[in-house]
């Protein structure tokens, strides 16, 4: 290069598999500066000798160089990127960009992973100026996230874990392993046709939806008697069906009800994948669909078969019936028709429509002016509730800033590897104060007016908890319905 040095420091004090890597560059070059310097060096080595034809006279070479520069420049403009590649270095996915134009970059990422692995260690993250680069090596695939949004390595690792789960949901872990055992250089994109849409939507949700941060799901606010009627309709028409494992009703990416076989549970991470599947696929609105899906937390090596359909043209709630029997499409289609008829008879469709139209509640409904916004998770049921974003968080910048603050508070309180295990944290900031309170029963993250006296905060928070308690039968699913 130009004589400057890039230093890589490995901290092995926490043992193999837990290393943090920092890149300390005297010129404060970014990850992409480092990549482009490598590529320029390679081009210089390939230049012809003096008696050869001048390569600059070749317009194709000039176009190639300018194209590389355009690609790198376009990547620098992004705040966050995600890459997926095989352990052989084959590109699989790139968030913002074409894999075909980034082959050398994928090769560099592969080299970084195996360079550390050769020393019997595992690379977890790199810090390069404003950029944080996280790695997740889940053989036979490598996942890399590059961000300057301020996420911690733990948060980026969570995002990469969801990306890995999505690929498993399409192929199963067993099939994925078998493919690369037979052909190490296999191009996995051949089997992931259409999955880019799912991955794009998932990565957007990871940045914008608190559900992923909390490991919980949001429930559509309904009168408990209406929710019970919906669950009862599903049980009546599905209880006698063999091999039906889960029946799930979703509306606007919120859970309306979940009915399950007695001996099985559905992990929130698997439910997130199902919600993402429905939200990413407009085709489900056109007709009943039959699709295989693997739920990694339920069984990473096998498929469930999902009957997916919207209830009716006048009610855009989506019903998923998941079975282990691949030949039950028509049986489940008939059950769905019976469910819809009963819901219509008891006016449940109208109740769902009203709840979807309302869109949620605001802090004005809560009527605690000192609290601007909050996230509340009921830990035993892995469900959460939050008001709609309103002033001063009603524009995208302020909303993203608040979500970033919630992420940092969550990192401090709960993420594995944290040095402290705190129960209550109160942070005074320039624009708002933040409170995080964790017990065995709930997690609460609240943004509070900055001028409120500290002594007045706890009474306001207790008032908020009392309001949530009074509304819990409407905001949460309190009983677990089984077949």
TrEMBL record:
Annotated region (Disordered), positions in chain: 37-68
InterPro entries: FUZ/MON1/HPS1_longin_1, FUZ/MON1/HPS1_longin_2, FUZ/MON1/HPS1_longin_3, Mon1
Stretches assigned to the FUZ/MON1/HPS1 second Longin domain: 242-341
Domain called FUZ/MON1/HPS1 third Longin: residue spans: 370-472
Pfam family, one: Fuz_longin_1
A biological process term (GO) from this entry: protein targeting to vacuole
Domain FUZ/MON1/HPS1 first Longin, first and last residues per copy: 80-202
PANTHER family, per database record: SAND PROTEIN-RELATED, VACUOLAR FUSION PROTEIN MON1 HOMOLOG
Biased composition (Acidic residues): 48-66
Signal peptide start-end: none
Protein's recorded name: Vacuolar fusion protein MON1 homolog
Native source organism of the sequence: Notodromas monacha
GO CC, one annotated term: Mon1-Ccz1 complex
């Amino acid at each position: 290069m130009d004589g400057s040095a890039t230093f890589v420091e490995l901290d092995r004090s926490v043992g193999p598999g837990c290393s943090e890597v920092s890149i300390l560059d005297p010129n404060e070059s970014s990850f992409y500066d480092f990549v482009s310097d490598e590529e320029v060096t390679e081009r210089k080595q390939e230049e012809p000798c003096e008696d050869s034809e001048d390569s600059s006279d070749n317009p194709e070479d000039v176009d190639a160089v300018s194209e590389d520069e355009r690609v790198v420049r376009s990547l620098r403009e992004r705040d966050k990127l995600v890459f997926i590649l095989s352990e052989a270095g084959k590109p699989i996915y790139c968030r913002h960009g074409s894999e075909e134009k980034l082959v050398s970059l994928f090769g560099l990422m592969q080299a970084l992973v195996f360079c550390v692995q050769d020393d019997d260690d595992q690379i977890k993250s790199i810090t390069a100026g404003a950029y944080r680069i996280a790695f997740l090596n889940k053989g036979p695939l490598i996942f890399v996230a590059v961000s300057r949004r301020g996420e911690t390595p733990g948060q980026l690792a969570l995002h990469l874990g969801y990306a890995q789960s999505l690929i498993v949901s399409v192929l199963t872990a067993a099939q994925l392993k078998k493919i690369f055992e037979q052909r190490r250089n296999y191009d996995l994109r051949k089997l992931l046709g259409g999955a880019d849409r799912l991955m794009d939507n998932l990565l957007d949700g990871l940045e914008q939806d608190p559900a992923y941060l909390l490991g919980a799901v949001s429930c559509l606010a309904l009168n408990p008697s209406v929710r019970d009627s919906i669950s009862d309709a599903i049980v009546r028409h599905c209880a006698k069906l063999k091999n039906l494992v889960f029946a799930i009703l979703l509306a606007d990416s919120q859970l309306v009800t979940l009915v399950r076989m007695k001996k099985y549970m559905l992990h929130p991470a698997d439910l997130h994948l199902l919600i993402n599947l429905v939200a990413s696929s407009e085709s489900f609105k056109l007709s009943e669909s039959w699709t295989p899906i693997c739920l990694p937390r339920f069984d990473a090596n096998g498929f469930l078969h999902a009957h997916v359909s919207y209830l009716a043209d006048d009610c855009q709630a989506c019903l998923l019936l998941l079975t282990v029997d691949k030949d039950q499409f028509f049986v489940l289609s008939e059950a769905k028709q019976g469910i819809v008829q009963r819901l219509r008879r008891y006016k449940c469709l109208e109740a769902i429509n009203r709840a979807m139209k309302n869109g949620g509640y605001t802090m004005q409904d809560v009527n605690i002016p000192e609290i601007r916004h909050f996230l509340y998770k009921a830990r035993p049921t892995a469900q959460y509730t939050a008001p709609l974003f309103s002033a001063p968080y009603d524009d995208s910048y302020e909303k993203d800033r608040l979500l970033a603050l919630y992420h940092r508070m969550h990192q401090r309180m709960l993420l594995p590897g944290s040095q402290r295990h705190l129960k209550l944290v109160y942070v005074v900031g320039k624009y708002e104060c933040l409170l995080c309170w964790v017990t065995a029963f709930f997690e609460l993250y609240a943004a509070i007016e900055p001028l409120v006296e500290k002594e007045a905060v706890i009474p306001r928070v207790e008032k908020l908890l009392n309001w949530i308690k009074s509304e819990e039968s409407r905001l949460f699913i309190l009983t677990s319905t089984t077949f």
